Amino acid sequence: MMPEPLPLDALDSGILGLLGLARRAGALIIGMDRMRLVVKRGQSLLVLADPELSSRTWRELELWRDGDDRNRLVAVAGMADLNGTLGTRGVRALGLAEGGFRRGLEERLGPPKTGEQGGCQEA
Q: Higher confidence at residue 59 or residue 9?
């Protein structure tokens, strides 16, 4: 289940500033290919993704979220505008792995809402 999209204007200047710092520090993981590599290495991710991504991509993101309760998936309406703020182009999904930038973003976003965080699924 895709989480309820968060409107871009709900991201305050603190969140936007933190994302900009993370980008300049090289800590922002931009795009699905780079995020796949992080997940394959066993690291957890906080993912901000465009709700307009394909259903196939959303299923993949949901599998990451549900396979590891450390992962968090946040749908952000208006990712095109976020690109302008971050100085990126065409990015529809980005993530932060474990570390200070992620902790700061988690604090600013608040507790996970329904559909944002999963748990390890029993087989």
A: 59
78-117: pLDDT as tens digits: 888 888 888 889 999 999 998 999 999 999 998 888 888 8
Rounded CA separation 30/18 (Å): 15
Q: Compute the radius of gyration of the chain from its Cα atoms.
A: 13
Query: What CATH number matches the domain at 6-109, 3.30.1490.20, 3.30.1330.30, 3.30.1370.20, 1.10.630.10?
Result: 3.30.1330.30
CA pair distance 101, 51, nearest whole angstrom: 23
For the chain, the residue count is: 123
Closest by CA to 64, choosing from 88, 89, 32, 30, is 32
pLDDT of res. 120:
43
